[in-house]
From TrEMBL:
Species lineage: Bacteria, Bacillati, Actinomycetota, Actinomycetes, Kitasatosporales
Similarity remark: Belongs to the HSP15 family.
Entries under Pfam families matching the protein: S4
Protein name: RNA-binding S4 domain-containing protein
Top-level taxon of origin: Bacteria
Biased composition annotated in UniProt, kind: Basic and acidic residues: 98-112, 119-132
Annotated organism of origin: Streptomyces tamarix
Entry keyword annotation includes DNA-binding: yes
Keywords: DNA-binding, RNA-binding
């Protein structure tokens, strides 16, 4: 199989190899680790690193704090340049929410120490977490 096997519509590749080849992860080992951790789904099902992907499959990758939803257009087994890699999939990732809708993380002043029990309860209440 060549790096870009367009001639064969039945071509398949390992999902970890494909994620690495189209540059969704930096290394193949990161892609395999993401698969083993359950951060990769192929057509809605959790994927093991050796699961085969083919054109038309939907791949969801949760990596670096965001979820990418892509559809496989072309099977790649070797890492290629970014322009070629971008042509190998269709990005269906929804746009990120506007900044004003993103919950702000609590920021404590430097040297303020640990939160008191009262402050911790207030933080939990803001986050929506309940304690028994």
């Amino acid at each position: 199989m060549t790096a870009t096997d367009e001639a064969n519509p039945n071509a398949t590749a390992r999902v970890d190899s494909w994620i690495w080849a189209v540059r969704l992860t930096k290394t193949r080992s990161q892609a395999a680790t993401a698969c083993r951790a359950g951060h990769v789904r192929v057509n809605g099902d959790r994927a093991k690193p050796a699961q085969a992907v083919k054109p038309g499959d939907e791949v969801r990758v949760f990596h670096a704090g965001r979820e990418r939803v892509v559809e496989v257009k072309r099977v790649l087994t070797k890492r290629v340049g970014a322009p070629v890699a971008a042509e190998a999939y269709t990005d269906k990732t929804p746009p990120p929410p506007p900044r004003e809708h993103v919950a702000l993380a609590g920021v404590r002043d430097r040297g303020a120490g640990r939160p008191t029990k009262r402050e911790r309860r207030e933080l939990d209440q803001l986050r929506g977490a309940r304690r028994p």
